[in-house]
Structures
1.
Amino acid sequence: MPFLGQDWRSPGQSWVKTEDGWKKTTKDENETNNNVLERKSYCKEEHDKENLILSINYDVAAKKRKKDLLNNNTKIPYFHKDKWIYVHKGSTKERHGYCTLGEAFNRLDFCSAIKDIRRFNYVVRLLELIAKSQLPSLSGVAQKNYMNILERVVQKVLDDQQNVRPIKELLQTLYASLCSLVQDMGKSVLVGNINIWVHRMENILQWQQQLDNIQINRPTNTGMTYLDLPVSLQLNIMHRLSDGRDLVSLGQVCPDLSVLAEDRLLWKKLCQYHFADRQIRKRLIVSDKGLLEWKKMYFKLCRCYPHKEQYSDTLQFCTHCHILFWKDTDHPCTANNPESCCKPVSPQGFINLFKF
């Protein structure tokens, strides 16, 4: 039968389950235990929150380090190495969107091209044209890639001690363009903080100083030199120079070369090579003796008209497949006669391909 007597528990006591089993506690002890449990649970929650914050900070730091791999300040920037790309100017069923100048500049393998002596002048000319007018049209990634490639070009010139003058002209053009563009910051002309571009301009000034301080090492061999060659061979070599400034520099070596560098036939061929007859007739300069001053005409024509550009190796464009590729690399052409569809692309032509 059920127990009907007085409750054996005294007032204020209760049974509580513990690690050692059930124990009888009073009301005050129960409240104390509850407070301890609440404090433990609160500490545990705080600890969990702290771990969560630490894990979030770790993930943010990891993402930041990963993002910094593509930043200009990283020591090993990433370069694309595509040998060819599609150049499509509209959406089709097969391809969506269009190819921009920045995308082409990012994806094509320009990093390896600057190591090839046949393509070096081509890439330098392309960098110069972009610096003059196309830099604001590049995306932020393309602008970073531009500066990274430029840094490699400068480093190659400093190591090889060759092509110093065109790189000086490139840096001067780029610095002048950045000076005007930085003043228009806030008008969506350059991507990034103004401090980043100020730092890049400081790097350009530092590169210019390094190029000014470069010392050309004299060859150590004691064999035959240019001056030991017959005069006819010396003139033959001079006729192969396509820049009048190189002739002027060569003529400053010694008095004998200075006389050869003033040869009228030499400057006449230079004028006829770079400029059309119509342009030459507009800029005639006659001496007191009634002879044409071909040297003066050449530099006057250079100030009025662009030079004729000639490169050993250029980019090629397939009109059938709309693919842009380097000359010595194959592309997936579907034409019956691929060679008839391919044409060389000048640096200016490369930029014109992406004008919509």
2.
Amino acid sequence: MAMIALKCPKIEVAVVDISAPRIAAWNSDQLPIFEPGLDEVVKECRDRNLFFSTNVEKHVAEADIIFVSVNTPTKTRGLGAGKAADLTYWESAARMIADVAKSDKIVVEKSTVPVKTAEAIEKILTHNSNGIKFQILSNPEFLAEGTAIDDLRAPDRVLIGGRETPEGKKAVQALKEVYAHWVPEDRIITTNLWSAELSKLAANAFLAQRISSINAMSALCEATGANVSEVAYAVGKDSRIGSKFLNASVGFGGSCFQKDILNLVYICECNGLPEVANYWKQVIKINDYQKSRFVNRVVSSMFNTVSGKKIAVLGFAFKKDTGDTRETPAIDVCKGLLGDKASISIYDPQVTEDQIQRDLAMNKFDWDHPIHMQPVSPTAVKQVSVTWDAYEAAKGAHGVCILTEWDEFKKLDYERIYDSMQKPAFIFDGRNVVDAEKLREIGFIVYSIGKPLDQWLKDMPAVC
């Protein structure tokens, strides 16, 4: 919405939420999320043609186009638990729109939703319409966190799906004209509703599949003495494959990949396609395997126990240049180490102690509900401390786990870290960011994902 406000100065954009603290943060100098370049965009447009308000009904009633970006969490109980999307928040938003609308509206799905959601939303709106006409469009978002502003300025494509009726086509055209202020026409793709909804799930499934593919190879590389970076480089040089999303790591995270694949799996099962469902399930299985494999490697290297040992965790966000911790692999790695009674010291330049403690105490999928629906101030995990300094985190530690690829981790003074640690000193690089050879010269025992193993690690095989 901030980018639309920036690029379309004549359009008034109102962002509304029922959460007063969240809106207050958007109206303050300290925005509630960290995203490079966002501050400047918001501050340029705020109170000019970009407004943040808790007066939901007023702005919805006045709007011509309404983007709905509510949470669509994975269901935790009932039909489809653990896979299906929970559309509770979507449905209540649709009912509220129908209640307060006094003029025709274009309602745009911005949340990632299961295929055919638009049909359900359409039914709610038309059955409560009081003669007002609603057009539903699907306009999924393809930005990536950490590069969101650049992704919005110059998107690969903007996808708009609508009904193939005269009214539907008119609504598609109206939204197309908004984006056309700055996006070249050949990058604005229009499709039917179902294609747009499914394209988003498919795009995320394909991206996650690439990560799981290279992570599966990383396990084979370690077993055979191959180097996953060399393999990825050679594979990525094939123009049909390309080099993006071929970095082996401790696993993918973020709010979308796992949720969207589970959703895809559920849709396949509901449509009588178990073979297709099982194919996509495997992408998540490999991701879970990669995280548990990493934990097993840490524990087995340290004489098969980390009980009472201090482990430093560098990086908690799911990737660099964001403070987002949703589904971050760091949660499962930390929980795995805590399960073996390790004492963990965590440093991340953008994630607060409160967020880390909340993430480690939360049940799976809780994060995707509004904050007032989450458990209240979870009890802190005793064996976890959070520091604001990598050197402090590593002091007296037996091992260091690098779980986010923050640039600053490449530039740390590892001699200083080595001197402050217990010996033998271990580094487990879950993102392949450090120069393993240099660290070995200092004296570290180094594990890098998918790289030839240290003799030490060969002598202490990980039990899977």
3.
Amino acid sequence: MVSTLGGLQSLFGGQAKGPPVTNIMFLKTHKTASSTVLNILYRFAETHNLSVALPAGLHVHLGYPRLFLARYVEGVELQQHFNIMCNHLRFNLPEVQKVMPNNTFYFSILRNPVFQLESSFIYYKTYTPAFLRAPSLDAFLASPRTFYNDSRLLKNVYAKNNMWFDFGFDPNAPREEGYVRARIAEVERRFQLVLIAEHLDESLVLLRRRLRWALDDVVAFRINARSARSVTRLAPETRERARSWCALDWRLYEHFNRSLWGQLRAELGPRRLRGEVERLRARRRELATLCLQDGGEPKNRTQIRDLRLRPYQSGRADILGYNLRPGLDNQTLRVCQRLVMPELQYMAHLYALQFPEKPRKNIPFLGE
């Protein structure tokens, strides 16, 4: 059995000053590294015995792609408020406020829309009508109106301005300057922080400060990441077409990317930021050594020995996961399992803990 007492003592050190924030709403956008952030929130909820607003019944999303309604949450009729809400939903503030306390911390995450669209095309290829008929993303973007139909919005949500849609806005709205600025201002008023996927470590440093959490609360491995072979390299003209096609997403991303770096400069400064990011990365390396086999290298589905840790596969994506080191003691094993547990399995696990009297959520692909 691997002895890890010293590693675990280090693992749970570094508490931030002040009481930690425990009422949190994370708007989980699609294909933006949001599954990694979800894992952070699920772990914190389980560790601190917090309630999570989970999808009702056998569902895995909170009504998505329909606008969120409070009734999509399991147990909402019995519990006045929940501590954490972080599953996929289309943002609808009045209904969210029925579920979350008044002092809730709201945050979300965005990704460069070019790469977000590329990821969506691969991941939702077999689900989205606009993608289904397109032989490639190049072909789709060369003539998007050949494939995309505005009237099939709820089926085609992943094909145009998907992040804008997730915030509750119209992805087919005209790019009128007054409208765009008003919607961005709306997001800014409600969300105390918007992370940026391309700068995830810097974002997590700032998130940790805002939530007053321990360093280890925000350390994470990449969850739901694709293998390099299922990532499409885009030509410069394709990238430009993607920015134009997803112009509303682009405006949202540009604004909050600038906002993030403005906040980092104001609160930390370059030197301190570099130090905080390195601390985060060093702890991640320590955890990888502690938990993961083969130096922490992600594995494809067939290489993952524990069926419970195999991630869901979608479209043409090759989603990676992890193998844990053999011989871990029980305490370390529980910590490491939480760090690598795919989101559907973790959701089902929390549901069983929170609602032991209800039927378990079924994860069909685990039996394959």
4.
Amino acid sequence: MSASNGTSTRPKAPHVPPPGIWAPAITFFDPETDSLDLAAQSKYYAYLSKHLTGLVILGTNAETFLLTQSERAALLKCAREAVGPDHPIMAGVSGHSTKQVLEFIGDAVDAGADYALLLPCAYFGKATTNRVIESFYAEVAEKSPLPIVIYNFPGVCNGIDLDSDIIATLAQRHKNIVGVKLTCGSVAKIARLGAVLPKEEFSVFGGQSDFLLGGLASGSAGCVAAFANVFPKSISKIYRLYQEGKGEEALKLHQKAALAERVCKAGIASTKFAAGLTSAKSAGIEDAERLLAPRKPYEPVAEGAKEGVRKTMAEMMKIEDSL
């Protein structure tokens, strides 16, 4: 898993992911050929990188489990080329076996990623005991050249929900485990992890932006949020306002964003359609709605629902445009 010549001269990233707002970038497909549109993808990555702390490439919202291994590698390579050598990239490397994961990590190293985001192995839900989870993360952490960020998302892992004790134990035993993304939505886990793991050694990220302020108040490093695809400037502003001590102003914007974020709760099709109305357009991508249909066999947003998305996001679209 040695880095290629193209990445070996890059400056070394901090061992722990920097705090702030990260987006799990969505994926552009040509629906006629069912292939990646890397030209559109490059524009999109470049645009997001101007407004966000870092990018997650191959997260859930990239439809990663619908991609081939070569497509995964192509997206990582495209991202590094689009954002330059210094912008932080966290690569999704999740798979169903340890061997799969280590191969994905190898591709991420070759492409110049800085961190690896990893779901628990959970294909066989009843067989995924704490002992299995601990041995899985231990072996990956030992063998990975990249620092590991645990990804807790019960909704895509057969209901496997890592509690704060097992996350803390893994981090304390393995110095190469440096963070967690909590898409479970538990602010209490943020507080408990912050109580036992120093920020200099471990970053705790919320997995959705609608509890960003609650997470920050409880000790989070920020969030990795699908909604940052849609309103990257606005979500980043909420974070900055909080860091500047402007809590009331941050809360006012946060509440408006949380109402608009309801569209993302409907699933990947709505998230991609919403991004096509905002950030993809700002990135200069033509025909974004067509290129942002979910990959087959999943269906795009129904025509009758599109107006509802526009209305729900109308106020936030004006705010985003003003920033």
